[in-house]
Amino acid sequence: MESPVLLNTTSTIEIIYQDFSLVAVNKPHGLLVHRSPIAADAETFAVQLLRDQLDRKVFPVHRLDRKTAGVLLFALDEAMNSAMQKQFMEGTVKKKYHAIVRGFTEDSGEIDYALKKEDGTVQEAFTSYITLNRAEAPFRTGKHASSRYSLVELNPATGRMHQLRKHMAHIFHPIIGDRPYGCNKQNKYFKEELQMTTMLLHAVELEFVHPLSRELVLIKADYQSEFRRMMELLRFFAED
């Protein structure tokens, strides 16, 4: 179970795309998509906020972890919900994430590493990545006087639970703020010295073919304030 995150949010959520059948929001870090028995401390949910804001029923067509921010897509009726979920299941939706990870990553790479579900089922999982920037900061978290970090673009071809978190940990470049897959020393430093209590993973883009119009839709979400603060602190500058 992830530790609770203090969520500074108003009664509304930022809408970044809307048409007659779909709406997308820029989900803040720390906000659950919907009510969950494993997070009994939560009282506010993206589904609830958007439903109240639009005054109508909404259907989340995919999921983001509680600590992950960025593009979250909803359908406005059951037929569109089924159509979009089908696209996600078939892997035709292109997803792009940005993450700040420990260490200097390679310029680019591919992670082809199967993941095991809680019931023991093994699922194929594939992620490609590109390094956007690297930085070295005077953070002493171990025997060295400084720490290295990379800003990476992650492109998951599959959609397994905690895939990006597990894949980055698998190649020894865990996402900063990730529990339980991350680096305890780094996470402790960021929490105690930098007062950061989230995870530095942001869903930047979703791209898909609209089931009704058949037009290509590209939705982008700006960084949330905490991710941006860490970018500035580490002097990262993302490439367009």
How would you explain this protein's 3D organization?
Helix content is 20%, strand content 30%. With 240 residues, the protein is an alpha+beta fold. The protein has one domain: Pseudouridine synthase, CATH 3.30.2350. The strands form 2 sheets. Strands 1, 2, 3, 4, 5, 6, 9, 10, 11 and 12 form a 10-stranded mixed beta sheet that branches. Strands 7-8 form a two-stranded antiparallel ribbon.
Structural domain count = 1
Please mark out the parts with pLDDT under 50 across 5 or more consecutive residues, or reply none. Answer: 1-10
Tell me the strand percentage band: 25-35%
CATH homologous superfamily (4th level) name: Pseudouridine synthase
- Name the helix and strand elements from N-terminus to C-terminus, one letter apiece: EEHEEHEEEEEEHHEEH
Distance between the termini: 35 Å
Any idea what the CATH architecture is? 2-Layer Sandwich
Please specify the SSE layout and strand pairing:
Layout: E1 15-18, E2 22-27, H1 46-54, E3 59-60, E4 69-75, H2 78-90, E5 94-102, E6 108-112, E7 115-116, E8 122-123, E9 126-137, E10 147-156, H3 163-170, H4 184-192, E11 201-209, E12 216-220, H5 225-233
Parallel strand pairs: 4-11
Antiparallel strand pairs: 1-2, 2-4, 3-4, 5-10, 5-11, 6-9, 7-8, 9-10, 11-12
Function: Responsible for synthesis of pseudouridine from uracil-65 in transfer RNAs.
InterPro entries: PsdUridine_synth_cat_dom_sf, PsdUridine_synth_RluA-like_CS, PsdUridine_synth_RsuA/RluA, RluA_PseudoU_synthase
Domain Pseudouridine synthase RsuA/RluA-like: 22-170
